[in-house]
Amino acid sequence: MKNKYIFGAFIIVVFLGFMVYLFTQSNIKYESNFAKVMNENKIVRATGTWVKDKNYVIDRNNQTFTFYITDSNGNQMKVIYDGMMPNNFESAKSVVVTGQYKDGYFHASSILTKCPSKYEGQNTPDVKTSNL
Amino acid sequence: MNTKAYALYKKDFNSELRTRYAVNSLAMFIIVAISVILFSIGNEKISQSLTGGLFWVVIFFSAMSGLSRVFVSEEERGTSLALHLVAAPSTIFSGKLLFNVILVFCMNIIIAFLYSMLFEAFIIRNFSLFAVSFILGNIGLAVASTIIAAIISKAGAKGTLYPVLSFPILLPLILTSVQLTLLANQGAGFGDAKFELAIVFCYDVIILTGSYMLFDFVWKD
Fold first, then answer.
1. Residue A16 CA, distance from chain mean position
2. Nearest CB to B199: which of A8, A11, A23?
3. Are A77 and A38 within 8 A, CB to CB?
4. Do A15 and B213 touch (CB under 8 A)?
5. ipTM rounded to 2 decimals
6. What average pLDDT does chain B have?
């Protein structure tokens, strides 16, 4: 009788640990290769940088914001975001868009901007300690 | 032991045929919920992700309305003491579980059928993935609702206690099943859904072992 509970508790603990591990695996993945994003048609977080040379469109009637982002390999992708341009978008170093690629563009439901740090060191010439 | 469990299931099935309490409350709930959703949508097009969520909302609440009958009816008719005499706790749980599994499967097949008929956005593109996730999800739902029904059957405010107690226990199952339904409707393959399927399978194993272990204590007065 005692064995039954020990055995049961063992099964529960093992599977609970397995389940917690799986929960951490099944979240939306980050993807920095746009070729993969375009082929897979899954919901991903695509990380890239904004192409400032290409035109961006803010459609006030439909509340959409269209722009182009590029990854490190130079693949460019058109992104349509349901909403207005985020405040710190222009100064962002890189952007993370969450959504899905279909019909020739990336439909984003949210944008995360990665801003340059306030506390970044300025490019001052190295002060050399001179041995006088 | 198995014949006794089957006899218990037969008894529940026959009394259900006579009173039709659980079947009626389930059918009424499904019809009311789906028609309210249909009316409120109107001509608007709703997205696929929304229909997947709405599908499990209807399943959750209809489960809450009908599945507690297995143990509550024994308490109300005062027959639970007789059950104590005739069979071991695990046998009783098996019989009740068998009844609830069949009820859950009938209910969810009807809901899935109605959804695919009535909602344009609810298209099952990968049927085998949908079937596997549906079967695993239904087993988890049936086991969890049976053990919770046993726990609440002795309490006073059964009607409110049941959904309140079920919600946290069913939450991981419902969340993962919503994801799985969405994936199946988008036409994803088994490879994309392997983590979710494994989560639901683990949930089923945990809840099944847990309920067989705990039922001895729940049933002992």
1. 29
2. A23
3. yes
4. no
5. 0.73
6. 88
Q: Where are the domains of chain B?
A: 2-219
Structural domain includes residue A123: no
Chain A residues touching residue B205 (CB < 8 angstroms): 11, 15
Contact assessment for residue B130 and residue B184, using Cβ atoms and an 8 Å cutoff: yes
* Structure token digits, residue B80: 């639970």
Instruction: State the total domains in chain A.
Output: 1
Do the beta carbons of residue A12 and residue B211 sit within 8 Å?
Answer: no
A44-50 vs A57-59, strand pairing mode: unpaired
Lookup: tokens for A132: 């006088």
pLDDT at B197 over 70: yes
Predicted TM-score (pTM) of the model is 0.75
Residue A110's domain is classified under what CATH number? 2.40.50.140
Handedness of CA B134, B139, B143, B146 (dihedral sign): positive
Which pLDDT value is given to residue A29? 72
Q: Is residue A54 part of a domain?
A: yes
Cβ distance A12 to B206 less than 8 Å, yes or no, reads yes
Rounded Cα distance between B153 and B23, Å, is: 19
Predicted confidence (pLDDT) per residue in B80-139, tens digit: 888 888 888 889 999 999 999 999 999 999 999 999 888 888 888 888 999 999 999 999
Tokens representing B133? 């996730």
Contacts of residue B144, defined as CB under 8 A and 6 or more positions apart, other chains included, come to B166, B169, B170, B173, B207, B211
Residue A101: inside a domain, yes or no?
yes
